Amino acid sequence: MSSSPYRIAVPESRLEDLQKRLDLATFPDELEDAEWAYGSPLADVKRLISYWKTNFDWRKQEAKLNELPNFKANVTVDGFGDTALHFLHQPSSAPDAVPLLFVHGWPGSYIEVTKMLSSLSGDANGVSFSIVAPSLPNYAWSAGIKKKGFGLGQYAEACHRLMKLLGYERYVTQGGDWGMFVTRSIGLLYPESCLASHINMVRAYPPEWSSNPLLAIQHAVTPYTEDEHQGRSRSDWFANEGSGYRAIQSTKPQTVGYALADSPVALLAWIYEKLHDWTDNYPWTDDEILTWISIYWFSEAGPAASLRIYYEATHTSTEANRERVQHWIGGVKLGLCYAPKVCEYIRGSFNSFPRSSPISTS
């Protein structure tokens, strides 16, 4: 197996089809004072659809994406045969550079790493990284999976075999959202290769009395800090007001998939809400939003395929299942990133996060 350079080239017929669908867009009404409480606001969606239809230049954005170090390779996943993976690969010139596998989640993609490529591959305090950022199967320019049961272990296997194909016998990982689950699955299944993992979607349980009694006492008597109270409040908001998509995508992804595959308005509204809610007031430009959404719309497997990871991760019973990789994985160093809207404090304080505590996300 080998990799080869890849160039994005969406057929003109796909652009014409999108234009027709945007021209026929129908919008729902909205309550006068709804704002973001009910989901993506009507005024924002109408503005973005109008811009998508009249001013957004996919070919210009496509050209920028093609300036990135895009490649494709076939990797074999046991029970599923060969699958074509798209990925960015930017080796560092430093002889001691650390291979870094960067794994996205939903509704993300490989472009999450693009603003960090130069800084990661450069020399920062004597450390530089060789970056590999795949599009997961079912996402962007990677192939879709046609059989049931492609769960976390299979995503991990695909990524691990890609790293081996590129000559990286040992490497570190970074994962957010489902990328956290995939990279922790890699640590579980391939600890001889995965030396360390960094995650930016974090949950923690409090120490258990049976396994960590001293830490459990410390946790019980130590007041939460203001930051921790805010984190718990944010988690409560997500659980009660922001997680409906997860219930749908984990149980009936095909049903909502019809809307996302047929309507660019539905796709934009479904994902735009997350871009707003989960990114710490990041000042999105319309071009950034529509490039993000267009990658899903033009994706090789189609936008509905991207939802299936939710179902498979919760219905596929293997060693690398969602429940198992929420727990501590020994032998693989772990780094955690805390951010106001990305990290969720669940049922406990990070002050006393012990090695034996479960961690989870998504």
From TrEMBL:
GO MF assignments: epoxide hydrolase activity
Keywords, in A-Z order: Aromatic hydrocarbons catabolism, Hydrolase
SUPFAM superfamilies registered for this protein in UniProt: alpha/beta-Hydrolases
Domain of life: Eukaryota
Gene Ontology BP term (one): epoxide metabolic process
InterPro entries recorded: AB_hydrolase_fold, Epoxide_hydro_N, Epoxide_hydrolase
Domain Epoxide hydrolase N-terminal: 4-113
Pfam family, one: EHN
Gene3D superfamilies: alpha/beta hydrolase
Signal peptide: none
Stated family: Belongs to the peptidase S33 family.
Name recorded for this polypeptide: Epoxide hydrolase N-terminal domain-containing protein
Organism of derivation: Aureobasidium subglaciale (strain EXF-2481)
